[in-house]
Structure formats: structure tokens, C-alpha cells
Design a protein that fits this description.
Layout (H helix, E strand, L loop, with lengths): L8 H4 L6 H25 L3 H13 L3 H11 L9 H16 L3 E22 L5 E3 L17 E2 L4 E9 L5 H9 L8 E5 L5 H10 L4 E5 L12 E2 L26 H4 L7 E3 L2 H8 L24 E22 L4 E11 L11 H19 L6 E8 L7 H9 L1 H7 E11 L4 E5 L4 H8 L12 H6 L17 H7 L4 E6 L13 H8 L4 H19 L7 H19 L6 H27 L6 H13 L35 H10 L4 H27 L4
Helix pairs in contact: 3-17, 4-10, 10-17, 11-15, 13-17, 18-19, 19-22, 20-22, 21-22
Length: about 700
């Protein structure tokens, strides 16, 4: 719950201007506006124009304004499919409309899951019985949804407790080596390595009756992490197509639907509850490499009585959009997205990002009043039901797949904008240089005289741009299904109140970002990235970075496989991509020097199309084996989550399978995946060259 007190803006939020400063600022904007309205047509798309409006965008920052948005967004919990979620969607929609933006809402029908009843009691060897507290004690309010796992099947179990560490295959192997079987037991797993659904699936494979999961948190021991245990992305009743009114929906018993849900029930518990159970276990000692609090793994003697009842029902989702139509290339779209739904109050996840999106809209509206109109169209996207499995964004991507494939320049995602200190970013490699350039323009929020770029270089890992192989936010459908170049931004990681009732406004102002300066920094980077992608005459993509990244992946695989003999097709394809990237970069440099001369317009458009479409080349129509929805052969989730490799998911799966199956069959499958990856890289190279093979 938001606290009853609030900081005085004049003393704490230094970026809120005084009245005299406001008048001066507005006067300057008026003069700039008159000038830019007169000259806009001549300067649109030029570097100077982009720089001017970029500076104006940064100067309009206001941590006070962002904090007010966040406070409003976190007044009530707003789980997708509830009335509170509808009110939150209307707040975002009205904000966009009040700014004069072209605003629209897209509705989708989806199967969501909610708790009806849950109970857990521990029966100890001394004869005592203790009922576990499943909800947070002393949390912000009583209107928070009880802790549960969405899409868990209903069921009951009574069995011995056994600790399985992270619940991965190697953990069950370690238990088996000690003679421990989990058959018929209620397993206790800690969160961290694999998605929840993978943990439950592995427990079911090993014969467990039910699963309890807990997160190790400091200072919030009774916090309980809610989440989904459904496999895959999007509405389970419309896999691969959008769930629209009058459209096809599958039945709950359809095999495509059933395979998305776990076979055994599960529920989340607090670290305090888990520790109370684990401290009573006997049996073999926990392996030292687990570095766990549990001294012994069981099974038992403590018995757990587990019961969960859930309901699944169709709900209406609301994706809210604001469009700024481009002046010269209105059919090219730069998309900025954030999900709006939250398990509880969602101060960090996701509404720190929603507040940033609302502030970007405010600042873009200010730029438009000052004469700016982007060269390409910009779309602000507020997604629904991300927490249930990226459902809102996935339904929209599936419905607009061809338009995205032919018109989307890039997708820029922010989920948890601020979780704590430290700047983190993930991107497809052709956007690395742009991301670094933009951080040189933004002030570091935790230093007096450093840019974000300078502070980034001083961290232990230096500039470390991650890759987007996970399925942990809304970039997944854009990149891994539609092949749209993507970026994901956030401040801090591993915050202790993740998906708990403590993720509220008071936590943010006490721990996450008391002065909201980190919010300002993320908003600055996010907004400037979009300005560059929307306004640069030649798209700021560099595929030489992509080729270098692919070469590094090949080197890692060469070491893993013991030589390059199997990788020759991939190595040859990377060389083709490198040559095409060099040619494209030379063309881009020449065009940037000549800027927007009229006779270059068509050539710029043709080059931009090649730069934009090259990412689509990494898609394969067949998708990953057994997971056809995931089409990207460079970035996507591996089937075996123990893998530390974050590239070539189909090939990594084949390598893992090679170690588990017949050698000849495994080698053939691995070689086929190598050729598939090689062909994907070649497709990207052909697209970048703009020539037929």
C-alpha cells in the first residue's frame, strides 16, 4: 500500500522546476517551436534535427512526474482479468488521449487461472501439526490475490517432504546417487535456475505428488513469489493465432491445450515456511555443491498435507496503444512496449516501466508541440496479461505477424524499469553500437559527474550487453516468433520482493529508487533509442557486430565439440554475413555523410529495408524441434535449462540430446541443426546484400 506521507517535491525532487523557471522554459519552447515549425520539413531526419530534439527530450525529464505516475498505478493490485486491471488500462488510455495522441485499444480473449482454495500443513515426527501461513503477514493490504501458481492443476497430496535444490535433472541425479527417491513425495524446490513449469515438469517425471517452491530473500522472509507454471507463450486456447471475438478456440481437453499445463499441482511458499520444513528433514546430507540452507534432504520424516483448488476462465484482455504517425515513412514502425498487469501492486514489476512509458508519452507530446514529427511512426504499447505467459503481446504479434514482418523497425522493451542499482541491457547485436551511443547522452543517476556510459564501463564486467534468449518478458514474441530486432532495458536485478505483496510504492521509495533518478535514466535511454530509430535517415544498425557475435558462438561450440569439422557450414555462412555487413556499413556511411539529398531517398529506403529485414533471415518456418512456435534459430530458449549456452537453441538441444541418446542418431540430428543454422545465417546475408543467392 502506498504510504500516507509523501516527499515535498521542491526539496527532494530537484528536477521539478520552480514557477519562474517554468515560465522561462515555456518561453524557450515557444521560440523553438516557432522556429522548428517553419523549418521542420527541411530538417526532418537529419542528424542535427535528431540531436536537437534528443536534447529537448532529455531536458524535459522530471522524476517528480514519474513518481506521481507510479503512485497512481500502484494504488491497488491489478491482476489481469480483474476490474482493477480494467481501471488501470483506462488510466493509461486516458493519459495517451489527454496528450492528444492517436490512441486505440485492442481486445483479446484468453484463458486465465485464479486460486479458489489452498492449504498446507506439516506433520512433524514428534506428533505436532502446524498449518503453514500461505499469504504474507503484515503485507500491504487484504485485497492482494493469495499466492498461487497460475494454471496449476487442482489436487491434493499427502507425502514425505524432500528437498530437491533447484529441481533440475542434475539435482535429481545427485539425489539418486544417494539412494533418494522422490516418488509419492511433496518436493520442496528453490527458485533460480529454470522456469517454474520446468521445475514442476521435472518433479512429475520423477514421480513426485506435488511441488512447493520458495525464493531465498533477504529481509522479506514471509514474501511469497506468485507466478505461472504454463509452458509456452500466449493464450493456450489459441496457440499460434490471436484469441479474438468469433475466432477459433480449442477445448480444455484438446491435446494442444493439455500439454501446456503441468500434470501435478504446485504452489509457492515463503522462505520462512520452507526453512521450517527443511530444518526438520533427515536422511542423507545435502550435497555441498548445492550451497543450500538445508542440512539434509529427506525424504521425511516430516509429512506434508497439500491441497490446492484453482479455476480457469476466459477473460478479456486490453492492450492499449498510442501512435505518432511518421512524416516521411509512416509505414515503418518503431515500437516501445511495457506490460501493465501485476501480480500485486507492481511498483517494480511492471509499473516502474509503465510510469516510464507514460513519461515518454508526455515528453514526446512536448516535442510535437515544439514542431517535431518523427520520420518513421512510433507506437507506444501497453500490454496485458504478461504475467500469465506474455499473453497480451503474443496475441497481438500473432494477429499482426505479416505487418510486423514487413514494417517493424525494432521493438524496445522495458519491464521492471527499476529494481535497484546498476544498469543492464539486452539486445540483438546489430543494435549494440546504438545502445552504447545513447548511454553517452544520459546522466548516470548514482554519480554526480558521470554519464551512464562512463559508469557502465567501470563495472566489474564492463559493457556487457546480454542476449535475448529467455522468455521472461514481452520481447520474446517480437524477436523469437516475428524476427524483429529488439532491446530490453532495466536497472538493478534480483530484487527481494519479486511477485510478492511487498512490491509496492513504499518499497520503491525506501529501497528501489528513493529519488526516482534511476527511473529518469531508463526513460532517457528508452526514449532516445526510439528517437534515433525513428529519425535517423539511415537506420543505425551494424551487422558487423552480429557477425562477430556469431563467430564467438562458433568458437565456443568448436571448443565444446572438439574441433571445427562439424561447424564448417556455419563458419562459411558467418563469413558471408560478415562480407554483406561490411558492404552495408560502407553504403550507410556514405549515405550518412550526404544526409538527405533528394536523389538518395530511394537508395536510403532500399538500404534501410535490407537492414530491417536481415533479422528475419534467422527465422525458420519449422521452428525449434517440438516447440515450433519459436522460429528464431540464433536466439530462443533451450529445451534443457541446465545449459549455460544462450545461442543456437535448436543446435544446443541437439548437442544435449546427443549425450543422452544413440550416438549415430544424435550425431545426425546435431549435423542437421548445424545446417539449419548455417542456412539461416545465409538468408540474413542474402537479405543484407539485397541480391538473389
Amino acid at each position: 500500500m502506498a504510504p500516507s506521507f509523501y516527499f515535498r517535491p521542491a526539496t527532494i525532487f530537484a528536477s521539478k522546476p520552480s514557477s519562474s523557471y517554468t515560465l522561462l522554459f515555456l518561453a524557450i519552447l515557444f521560440i523553438i517551436g516557432l522556429y522548428t515549425l517553419h523549418h521542420h520539413h527541411d530538417t526532418a531526419g537529419t542528424p542535427g534535427n535528431a540531436l536537437h530534439f534528443g536534447d529537448l527530450f532529455l531536458s524535459a525529464a522530471s522524476n517528480y512526474t514519474i513518481s506521481s505516475y507510479l503512485r497512481r498505478l500502484t494504488r491497488h493490485p491489478h491482476v489481469a482479468g480483474t476490474e482493477a486491471a480494467v481501471q488501470t488500462a483506462m488510466y493509461v488510455e486516458n493519459h495517451f488521449r489527454d496528450l492528444g495522441m492517436d490512441t486505440f485499444v485492442k481486445h483479446y480473449n484468453a484463458l486465465l487461472s485464479y486460486p479458489a482454495h489452498a492449504s498446507l500443513s506439516a506433520h512433524f515426527s514428534n506428533g505436532t501439526v502446524k498449518a503453514a501461513a500461505l499469504a504474507e503477514q503484515g503485507s500491504a493490504g487484504n485485497d492482494v490475490i493469495p499466492p498461487y501458481h497460475a494454471y496449476s492443476p487442482s489436487g491434493s497430496a499427502y507425502g514425505k517432504a524432500v528437498f530437491v535444490n533447484y529441481g533440475m535433472e542434475e539435482d535429481y541425479g545427485a539425489l539418486a546417487a544417494q539412494g533418494v527417491s522422490v516418488a509419492g513425495c511433496v518436493v520442496v524446490a528453490r527458485r533460480g535456475v529454470a522456469p517454474r513449469n520446468a521445475v514442476v515438469e521435472k518433479a512429475a517425471e520423477n514421480g513426485a505428488a506435488a511441488v512447493l517452491m520458495y525464493s531465498e530473500t533477504e529481509g522479506f522472509g514471509d514474501g511469497v513469489e506468485r507466478g505461472t507454471v504454463m509452458a509456452g507463450l500466449g493464450d493456450p486456447l489459441s496457440p499460434g493465432w490471436a484469441g479474438v471475438d468469433g475466432g477459433e478456440i480449442l477445448g480444455l481437453n484438446d491435446k494442444e491445450v493439455v500439454r501446456r499445463f503441468p500434470k501435478i499441482p504446485s504452489m509457492p511458499v515463503s522462505a520462512d515456511t520452507a526453512e521450517a520444513i527443511l530444518s526438520t528433514l533427515e536422511g542423507p546430507r545435502a550435497p555441498s555443491e548445492w550451497k543450500a540452507r538445508a542440512l539434509r534432504v529427506g525424504p521425511g520424516p516430516t509429512m506434508l498435507n497439500f491441497s490446492y483448488q484453482g479455476v480457469k476462465k476466459l477473460a478479456t484482455l486490453r492492450n492499449v496503444f498510442a501512435m505518432i504517425r511518421g512524416s516521411e515513412e509512416p509505414d515503418r514502425f518503431v515500437l516501445l512496449g511495457n506490460h501493465r498487469d501485476a501480480w500485486t501492486y507492481g511498483a517494480v514489476d511492471p509499473n516502474s516501466g509503465t510510469a516510464a512509458l507514460l513519461d515518454i508519452a508526455r515528453r514526446y507530446a512536448l516535442l510535437m508541440r515544439s514542431g517535431w514529427n518523427p520520420r518513421r511512426s512510433i507506437v507506444l504499447c501497453s500490454w496485458d496479461a504478461e504475467e500469465f505467459g506474455m499473453i497480451g503481446s503474443t496475441e497481438w504479434v500473432e494477429q499482426n505477424l505479416l505487418n510486423l514482418g514487413s514494417k517493424a523497425v525494432a521493438y524496445l522493451n522495458v519491464d521492471c524499469a527499476v529494481q535497484g542499482p546498476g544498469f543492464f541491457a539486452g539486445a540483438t547485436p546489430q543494435l549494440d553500437d546504438l545502445l552504447v551511443e545513447v548511454t553517452k547522452k544520459v546522466k548516470d543517476p548514482d554519480s554526480d559527474d558521470m554519464t551512464l556510459y562512463k559508469k557502465w564501463t567501470t563495472t566489474s564486467n564492463g559493457i556487457n550487453i546480454q542476449r535475448l534468449s529467455g522468455v521472461d518478458s514481452d520481447f520474446a514474441p517480437f524477436l523469437q516468433h516475428a524476427g524483429v530486432p529488439s532491446i530490453d532495458l532495466y536497472y538493478g536485478r534480483d530484487f527481494p520482493v519479486y511477485h510478492t505483496a511487498f512490491d509496492d510504492f513504499s518499497w520503491m521509495i525506501k529501497y528501489g529508487d528513493p529519488l526516482f533518478q534511476r527511473h529518469v535514466a531508463v526513460t532517457g535511454v528508452w526514449g532516445l533509442l526510439a528517437l534515433r530509430l525513428a529519425d535517423d535517415a539511415v537506420l543505425p544498425f551494424n551487422y558487423l557486430s552480429y557477425a562477430a557475435e556469431l563467430q564467438e558462438y562458433a568458437n565456443i561450440l568448436s571448443t565444446l565439440l572438439g574441433g571445427n569439422v562439424f561447424l564448417r557450414p556455419i563458419l562459411a555462412a558467418i563469413q558471408e554475413l560478415r562480407d554483406a555487413a561490411k558492404k552495408a556499413e560502407d553504403e550507410a556511411m556514405k549515405m550518412r555523410v550526404l544526409e538527405t539529398a533528394g536523389n538518395l531517398m530511394l537508395k536510403q529506403r532500399a538500404l534501410n529495408d535490407r537492414l530491417m529485414f536481415a533479422e528475419r533471415g534467422f527465422l525458420d518456418a519449422e521452428g525449434l524441434q517440438g516447440r515450433q512456435w519459436f522460429k528464431h534459430l540464433v536466439y530462443g530458449p533451450p529445451r534443457h535449462h541446465e545449459s549455460k549456452l544462450v545461442f543456437f537453441p535448436g543446435l544446443v538441444d541437439a548437442v544435449s540430446q546427443f549425450r543422452r541418446t544413440n550416438k549415430n542418431e544424435g550425431q545426425a540430428a546435431m549435423q542437421h541443426e548445424i545446417w539449419r543454422v548455417a542456412r539461416a545465417i545465409q538468408r540474413a546475408a542474402y537479405t543484407l546484400r539485397g541480391e538473389f543467392a
